[in-house]
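QA checklist item 7 of 12: single-chain prediction sanity check.
[x] sequence parsed
[x] length recorded as 355
[x] structure emitted
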Amino acid sequence: MSRFFSEKYASLSPYVPGEQPQDRKYIKLNTNESPFPPSPLAQSEAAKALPRLELYSDTMSAALRRELASFYGLKPEEIMPVNGSDEALDLAVMTFCDEKHPALFPDVTYGFYKVASSVYGVPYEEIPLDPELRIRPEDYSSSGKTIFLANPNAPTGIALPLKDVETIVASNPETVVIVDEAYVDFGGESALCLIPRYENLLVVRTFSKSRSMAGARLGFAAGNAGLIRDLDAVRFSTNPYNVNSITMAAGIGALRDEAYTQKNIRTITENREFLTRELRALGFELPDSRANFVFARLPGFDGEKLYLALKERGILVRHFSSPRIRDYNRITVGSREELAVVIQTLRSIIKEESK
């Protein structure tokens, strides 16, 4: 760091995203991207926006808000489009967390919650998952804290039933519960239907996974109109032109091509089941995933060693160094052809190690 770096960030451990290598071609299964391109309609709508780039984008993303509201059965004032769901999470920490309202989240979950809390000097508490890496709803009852829950959770892929999410929301009426649904389209139950009943619920969604738009950076927050006004007040104070015109247009196109999205989701879930079966046949242990990835370990085999062995052979997966999960690797569900190569490569690695 330079000598000008603020001392308030001296102890900051930045969020570490998955590798985006440029040096060689890999089978890239480390960042939960879709194996499919964006919808053709999303692409064509994005192209139509190009001639208007001399103008600033709409600060309210009004057309996209209306499209999202119609699609999900909400009101436009209950939705705020954002520059990737991380922006919504970042704004939620700024808006709803402080010394009196610390953050609360599981000890094994999306690392952004902890990093954002640290950036803004927000106290936080991590609650351990149970021995099977599951969230226990009772651990979050009447917490008095701002709760962040990824559902399905990352990196485990385990999903909480909607009734458990509602239990957590209902038991914390004086604080906001943020439910991060980045992977919900692959088999989870969305909490969007609870928004009319709970003023303290904020649901965060992304176009990066099921709608194949990770590079476009588009997501949205949905909740009570009062919560959305709160978030907009902070957003206008930090980044009012947060969603660019091309991304807005692509998002509207994607929403109007739901058949394309659902077809891809079906293929990904079928490929996930294939990968799960094949890994278990090789001796791997993994929870039932409701996301577009699996979280697997091979008993008796060091997780980092396995990650490096795959990387050496041209396959990227995600390894985490946290002691509790260091023997696991997260594998994105890619195409069937990619997954077949992964299984064959793992089979070779295991055979070599057994000699």
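[x] summary fact logged: The mean pLDDT is 96.
[ ] second reviewer sign-off
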